Amino acid sequence: MIPQKTLSFLCSLFFLFSVICVDSVQAQPSKRNWGLRFGLNAVSINNYEVYDAGDLLANTSYTNKNGYFITGFARYNIDRFFLQPEIAWNEYRRTCSFSFPVEGANSIYPPINLDINSKNISTNFLVGYNIINDYPFLFGAFFGSSFTGTFRTNYSMETDKTLSKTGFSLNYSGILGFSINISRIYFDLRYEMCLPNADINLKNIPDFPENFKNVKIKKNESILDFSVGMMF
Questions:
Q1: CA–CA separation, 195 vs 145, rounded Å?
Q2: 56-85, pLDDT tens digit by residue?
């Protein structure tokens, strides 16, 4: 008897092969497509500084972690050019670290690790050009803009305690990337540049410990993501 995991994998391969074979008989792409993509993202922090009551803290660092997303999109083809509006749900994860100085001593406390997990909805608009336009094989480059609304962010310094900040805050970024189509199979690699409004005032987080109220984290963020999906 074939194991269930093996059977599922074989069925998936058969489905993808069937899709490619059916589509390969078409000579030209559609004037309009729609699709769904999902994948992993990684937040890249830069220009990172942490202040306590205006004083720059030492021993600061950050850790980039993988998050994930799912995106629905449409594509409008004009010869080799295409326009691609999108709407996406994203989860971003990172850790910011800093240490307080020991009062009256020439030393600092051990680092404090602040885990940050944010969820948002974004709308993107891309303009692209298919460098290779031999359907069902397409290779394109694109650029565009993204407007992001963060609706929930979770903060934790201990594994058993998480504080949440809700509300809607807007941000924006520029996008550069590449896409590959093999029939209906779609791959995408993109870089979102310099989200400018990424600072954090810990006093604005409900129920955060009082001794952190004067801490401000100043940073810029960029995002790299890779996705796979289907385009119909």
A1: 11
A2: 998 899 998 999 999 999 999 999 999 999
Q: Which residue has the tokens 């952190």?
A: 212
From the list 133, 36, 26, 19, the residue with the least C-alpha distance to 84 is 36
Q: How far apart are CA 73 and CA 176, in angstroms?
A: 16
- Bridge-partner residues for 154, per DSSP? 117, 164
Question: Beta strands 55-56 and 81-98: pairing type?
Answer: unpaired
- For 29-231, CATH number out of 3.40.50.150, 2.40.160.20, 3.40.50.1240, 3.30.70.1130 equals 2.40.160.20
Q: What is the pLDDT of residues 20-32, one digit of tens each?
A: 444 444 545 689 9
User: Secondary structure of the chain: what % helix, strand, coil (to 5)?
Assistant: 10, 70, 20
- Residue 157: the pLDDT is 87
Q: How many other CB atoms are found less than 10 A from the CB of residue 185?
A: 16
Q: What is the pLDDT of residue 8?
A: 53
Domain coordinates in residue numbering, the chain: 29-231
Looking only at the bridges linking them, the beta strands covering 112-134 and 81-98 are antiparallel
